[in-house]
C-alpha cells in the first residue's frame, strides 16, 4: 500500500504534442531515414527465471461492487477476461480486518474467535469468483493489513489467515499464494506459524509469500540465517523495490515485487512508470509484479482515489474509465502466460540506457514476445534488428503499440514482419510501449460506457430494501464494519449498523482508526443531512457534512469538515475537523438520549451558516466559512479513543436547504458556450464526461466558457482540466462576473481530472444573460513542456 510519499518520477510522455500518429506507417527500417540502429540476438536456449505473472492487489474496489449491469460485468471483463483488456494473471485480495488500509476498511470474515466465519462479507470472495469465471487459469493470492482483536498471538493470527484459505476452498476457490507476514510490517516468525497451519489443514500446496516488506529485502537475510523460516517461505516478496539482492536471487526461490505502484489510471506518465517498473524488476530476476490497485473505486477525497488499472467510482451513473494504465498492462499480459520463461538477453536497452525491454518464450511452442518501452531513445527512433537463435519461432512477428499520451493510439496492431534469414528489423518510435510477438489472438475490447453524472440529489436510504449482512449501497467504510441489520430500540425494518465491538489490531500506516462510513458528492454545498441514530452501548455517534471537498491523490484522508456528535449521556458538540486539529463551534446537553434510544441528528449548511438539530430541535446556529462543500459521513467514537461503539443508523437523507436543489451549468469544450481564439489543438487526453480535451502553447490564445444565466444570483465556479505532467504550472484563468473580475493562477500539473473551485466557495454575483464568463489565456509562447489545457467549467448556483 502506498504511504506518505508520491512517486514523482517524470518521464517524457507528451509526444502527442509533437507527432501526428500514422497507423499505416511501415516498420521496416529501410523506409525510415536517419534512425539510430541497434542489434539484439535472441537465444531461445539461454533461459532464466520462470515467469509467474503480472497482476493486481485488490483492496479498494468498494464502489465497483455497487455497479449496475451490464457495466459491472463489462468492468470485470476489462480486468480479467483474457485477450480483452488488462487480462490479469494474478489477483491478490486483502484479507479484511475492519481496519483502515490507508484508503478504506475491508470487512472481516471472522470478527470474534467464537464466530462462525462469514465469507460473504464484503466483496473479496465475489471478485475472486468473478475473476475465475472469466479466466480459470488466474492465480489467487491473499494478504492481510490488520488483525481482529482476538488474534493476539502468532498461532491465532495464522489460524485466522488460514481460515480465509479454507473458506475459499469450501467455495470452490484455490488460494495459490498466502502472505506470511503482515503487509509492510517487517520480517517476523509469523510465516512459520502460517506454514504449520496450512500443513495441518491439508493446504500444503499453498505457497507462502514473505515478507511483503516496504522497499527492503531483509527477508533474504532471514532466510539465510534461519533454516526453519527458510523452509516456511516459498516465495520472497517485497514492495516497491525492484532490485533484489543476490541472496534472494540465489536462494532457489521465486522472487516477486508483491506490490508495486502503478499510479493514476489515466496518467500517461504513470502508465510508462508501471511498464518501466515491470521491465526493470524482470531484468533483475523478479518473476512476478503486482500493482496496487485493481480499480479506483472510492470517493475522491479518500486516500489515493485514482490509483487503479481502471476507474470505477460512479455506480449511480454506470460511468467508468479505461485509460493508459490498462492498455500498457495488456502489452505484457495478452502476449505471455505464467509458466513462460524469461530469456537472458545480452542487451537490456534499445539505445544506451534507454528503451528497456525483455523477452519471454513459450517453452512448449517456441513462440516468444518482446515487451519494450521507448522513453529516452533518440527522437528519430531506433531501427532494432533481432537475430533469432536457439530454436525460436521464425513465424510472423506482430507489432503492437501504445502511445500513453494519445488515447487514439492505445493498444493498436500497427504491422507484421516476417523474419528473413533468421532475423527481422522494426522501427521503434520514442515514448511508446511496444510488444513484438509471434502469438495471435490479442484484442482491444470495447464496450459502450454511459455518461458521467453527479451523485443523486436529493438522496435517501432507509435500508429496508437491502439484505441482512450486506453493505449499504454507495456507503464506503474508512474504518469499522457497517452492514445491514434488523433494527433495535423498538423499531421494525432494517438499519445500517456498525457491528465491530473490539477495536482491531491496526496496520501501522492506517490513516483512520475509528468507525467511519462516507457517502455523497464532494460538490454538495448547501444541503441538509439527517439520520436517526441509536447507540447500543455507552459512547458517541456522529454525522458529518461538507467533508473533505478536495481530491487528495495522496495518502491523506483527513476528514476535514463539520461534525455533530452526541453521546449516551446527552452531551453534544458541533465541531470543525481540520487537518491535524479540531475546533469546537458549539456544545451542550440534551435529554432523552441514552443506550438503545433513538434520536434524530441533522446538520444544515447554507453559505457560511451552519445549524445543528437534535430530535428536530435546533441546538446550534453558527457561522464558519472554512469549508464550503463536501460529502457526508456517519461514525462512532471519538478520535483517539480506544473503544468502538456498536451503533445503528436509519432513515439517512440528504436534501436541499429551503427545499430547492442547487442548479449548475456545465460547459464542456466543443459545446455551446465554449469558444476559442488563436491556435488550439485536440488532445488525446480525455476529460469531463470522457470527451477529448484541447491544448495550446500559442501566446495570446484564449479559451472562453460563457454560460447563459436564467436566474441572477451567486454562483460558485469550478474548472476541470486533464491530468498531465506537461501542463502549465501557472495557467491564467480570468473570471468575469457582475461588477468585476478576478484572476486565478492554477498549476495544471496538479488536481487534474477533478473539479477545482475558483474562489473561496462564497460565490460570485452573476446577472441574467451572457455577460459572465471564464477566460483561459496562454501566456508562454512555444513552451511545449508547459502547455495550457482546456476542458470544462461548471457554474453552480448557490441557493439561499
Structure, explained:
This protein is mostly beta strands. The longest helix has 17 residues, at 154-170. Strands 2, 14, 15, 16, 17, 19, 20 and 22 form an eight-stranded antiparallel β-sheet that branches. An eight-stranded parallel beta barrel has the order 3-4-5-6-7-8-9-10, surrounded by six helices. Strands 23, 25, 26, 28, 33, 34, 35 and 37 form an eight-stranded antiparallel β-sheet that branches. A hairpin with a 6-residue loop joins strand 16 (354-361) and strand 17 (368-373). Helix 1 packs across helix 2 (124-134), helix 3 crosses helix 4 and helix 8 (268-283) packs parallel to helix 9 (324-333). The chain folds into four domains: 29-47 and 362-451, Glycosidases (TIM Barrel, Alpha-Beta Barrel), CATH 3.20.20.80; 52-338, TIM Barrel, CATH 3.20.20.80; 459-659, Exo-inulinase, domain 1 (Jelly Rolls, Sandwich); 664-797, Galactose-binding domain-like (Jelly Rolls, Sandwich), CATH 2.60.120.
List keywords for this structure.
eight-stranded parallel β-barrel, Jelly Rolls, single chain, 800 residues, 50 strands, TIM Barrel, mainly beta
Gist of the model:
The protein is built from 9 helices and 50 strands.
What proportion of the residues is helical, as a percent range? 10-25%
When the domains are counted, the total is: 4
Strand content: 35-45%
Under CATH at level 1, the class of the largest domain stands as: Alpha Beta
Distance between the termini: 43 Å
Q: Mean pLDDT, nearest integer?
A: 91
Based on CA inertia axes, which overall geometry fits? flat
- Which homologous superfamily in CATH is the superfamily of the largest domain? Glycosidases
What is the number of helices? 9
The CATH architecture of the largest domain: Alpha-Beta Barrel
The number of strands is: 50
| CATH fold topology of the largest domain | TIM Barrel
Unreliably modeled segments? 1-33
Helix-strand category:
mainly beta
